[in-house]
Amino acid sequence: MARIAFISLAILAIAVTSLVPCSMAETLVVGDGLGWLVPPGGDLAYATWAAINTFTVGDVLLFNFTTGQQDVARVTKEAYLTCNSTNPISLKTTGPANFTLNTTGEYFFISTMDAHCPLGQRLAIYVTAPGPHHAPHPHHPPAAPSPVSPRAPVTYTVGDGLGWLVPPGGPLAYMTWAYNKTFIVEDTLAFNFVDGLQDVALVTKEAYETCNTNSTIQVWSTSPVKILLNSTGDYFFTSTYPRHCILGQQLAIRVVSSSGTTDHGSAPTSSIAHPPSSSSTSSPVTEGPVAGSPLPASSAPSRVLAGFFITFLSIFIAVF
Ligand SMILES: *[C@@H]1O[C@H](CO)[C@@H](O)[C@H](O)[C@H]1NC(C)=O
Ligand SMILES: *[C@@H]1O[C@H](CO)[C@@H](O)[C@H](O)[C@H]1NC(C)=O
Ligand SMILES: *[C@@H]1O[C@H](CO)[C@@H](O)[C@H](O)[C@H]1NC(C)=O
Ligand SMILES: *[C@@H]1O[C@H](CO)[C@@H](O)[C@H](O)[C@H]1NC(C)=O
Ligand SMILES: *[C@@H]1O[C@H](CO)[C@@H](O)[C@H](O)[C@H]1NC(C)=O
Ligand SMILES: *[C@@H]1O[C@H](CO)[C@@H](O)[C@H](O)[C@H]1NC(C)=O
Ligand SMILES: *[C@@H]1O[C@H](CO)[C@@H](O)[C@H](O)[C@H]1NC(C)=O
């Protein structure tokens, strides 16, 4: 596959220029294997994809879709939040479509097709400048040391004052919270919640995306919960309480190494360290130093609620 070829090339390039910080432009396929469509899992599909990738000026977003069945429009933040497809900044109706990320800042994309955007076919990303202080792309294999600026471990209180609950503003609340935060090995996540009304479940990417909490990696039910991020990789948190996940009590983060060296010397002994992933679209663990890039901050838009989604599922199936 192209990615494998690319990764081989990247390894070669990194080997050759191991002392030069790597900031190669890259083509990112939006949604990976899912492509660009009304995501079966609703809003969170592209939010999750955005959260576990980083975007650098020069990168290309490739929206892979079937001409006539989908389209992609770059829009303002306001239009993104309200799914307003009048007057997009630009519109591409022929798939696959590329967008070159020319500048730093927030980019918002939606589908202008009927009901596609409210059903979750929308993407918000934050693009950072390339440069020596920016880490290689997470799709790259571990690189030579090129550290995220060293700092003392930080304890992050999830949601800050909001705590850990079904967020009133909908599912982007914790994505917004994680935006602009860099999670480095040895940092700690603190979850504050009301015992008996909430819990914290560490789950796989698949469980996170489908909100199936029948099986979890680990569950904590007594607040406060302090979780030491003792390994690089992607971590997915939700709640096992009925409907909490689907209503937006979800947090996905990527934890990176502070040294840039691989962590083989401290191989994880606990299942917490490497949440297994059954999805081929998730690169399992990235040990290279990368900046976390959760979603751009936004006032969380009102969510497509589960009932709404189920109501429209039949329409969605009919459309496809
Ligand atoms: C786009 O989607 C098609 C059909 O699913 C797939 O065959 C193709 O490999 C995808 N292209 C990319 C670049 O992912
Ligand atoms: C959608 O955006 C257009 C201009 O871009 C604006 O005139 C219109 O009022 C907006 N519609 C809604 C429902 O907000
Ligand atoms: C989009 O980018 C990919 C990878 O850079 C390239 O192979 C493809 O030809 C581009 N497609 C268009 C329509 O420019
Ligand atoms: C980036 O710049 C190119 C060339 O100037 C332009 O065609 C393209 O539309 C720009 N991309 C975006 C997302 O604005
Ligand atoms: C996120 O970081 C960027 C660049 O460091 C900054 O311009 C932007 O204002 C920040 N946004 C928030 C919500 O902190
Ligand atoms: C989860 O478990 C319940 C009860 O055992 C079962 O009814 C349900 O189908 C399971 N859900 C999934 C998605 O496997
Ligand atoms: C990582 O942290 C978890 C709990 O925070 C702990 O159970 C586990 O033993 C730790 N693993 C390592 C390798 O330190």
Automatic annotation (TrEMBL):
Signal peptide start-end: 1-25
Lineage: superkingdom: Eukaryota
UniProt keyword terms in alphabetical order: Signal
Pfam families per record: Cu_bind_like
Keyword Signal: yes
Residue ranges, compositional bias (Low complexity): 266-294
Annotated InterPro entries: Cupredoxin, Phytocyanin-like, Phytocyanin_dom
Ranges where the Phytocyanin domain occurs: 26-129, 154-257
Region described as Disordered: 262-294
Gene3D superfamilies to which the protein is assigned, alphabetical: Cupredoxins - blue copper proteins
Name of the protein: Phytocyanin domain-containing protein
Lineage summary: Eukaryota, Viridiplantae, Streptophyta, Embryophyta, Tracheophyta
